[in-house]
Amino acid sequence: MLARGINAGRLILKNAGFCERSPLNRGFSDSAKNGPSTSSSGLGPTIRSTPASNAKAAQAEAAAAQAKAHAQGEIPGDGRVTSALSAAGNALFFAALGGTAYFGYYTLRYTTPEMEQLIKERKQPENDFPGRSLWIPLMSWYAENRRSIEEQVKKYSDPPSEHLLPDLPPHARHVRTLVLDLDDTLIHSDWTRGRGWRTFKRPGAEDFLRQMAQYYELVVYTDQLPTYADPILDRLDPQRFIQYRLYRDSTQYINGKHVRNLNYLNRDLDKVLLITANEDAYSLQADNAVKLKPWKLEPEDTALLDLLPLLEQVFRTNVPDVRAVVRSFEGQDIPSAFRERMRALAAKQQSQKPGLFSGLRR
């Protein structure tokens, strides 16, 4: 009877949710409720860790170490792999440096035709030398690619045609050509913060064009683009005294400068004069160039008008080679020097002119 009563009581308590817990269950339950327990020895709290918390801690520690290494410039990974990559990078760098120096020497020392001739000579059996079997194919490859690159560059540095102007008709072969630069010769473009860009025509420019169109074939040869030059020339020369306009693409690009190469004009150079204020423009044919002082908006400038007597005289006297005229003024201001010559000539003629009654005798 007593045993039955005890069992009945346990069943009632179990149904009510008050089951007896084992010491292990009580420990986990208490720990979950109350947090870390204190050991009986009084040495402090005892933290019970789980596998999940250990993994998180390890991940956090690894991330912190990686961030520190990145901040210090270290490359993560195995030390042996890092060392191998570093050695390979150094080898490639010094190989490239050595190759650049080696080919650079031949680039500076020899032109492409000279390099090809050198390879041809060293291919001869009697010109044997150590490393010949490697040097010849390597330098042949270098010379071939160098010529290919130079040909590509030449397409952009040279004028698009060897004849920039059309042929003169047979009855006009005697005509002389007057080539005019644009900037600081006929006009000057100036910029200020208040008004921006404005273009001014040189004093006497319109009269100069009108006068010279009677004697010369007029050509403007500028290093500017058509989008810049055409609107200016349309206003400066509405009557189209200037017969041809040549732009930047018609210049020859040499050492970073746009040179006016008169050989491409399809005209005899003994009948071509270039008027410019740009020293770079006439570097190839200095004997054809009449050099002016660059115009920088000086209102009293008369350089173009001062040239008119000389250019008219060249036409009227039918000078066989205009280059001889230019050379005769070397190192001088041409308009001023020409005026002095004309004064001296007039004075000489006046002194030699016989008087009205000089032939009469007593």
UniProtKB/TrEMBL annotation:
Record family assignment: Belongs to the TIM50 family.
Cited function: Essential component of the TIM23 complex, a complex that mediates the translocation of transit peptide-containing proteins across the mitochondrial inner membrane.
Membrane topology type: Single-pass membrane protein
Assembly, per entry: Component of the TIM23 complex.
Organism of provenance: Coccomyxa subellipsoidea
Region described as Disordered: spans on this chain: 25-56
Biased composition (Low complexity): 35-46
Matching PANTHER family: DULLARD PROTEIN PHOSPHATASE
Domain FCP1 homology: 171-314
CDD domains listed in its UniProt record: HAD_FCP1-like
Compartment list: Mitochondrion inner membrane
SMART domains membership: CPDc
Alphabetic keyword roster: Mitochondrion, Protein transport, Transit peptide, Translocation, Transport
Main location: mitochondrion
Name the record gives this protein: Mitochondrial import inner membrane translocase subunit TIM50
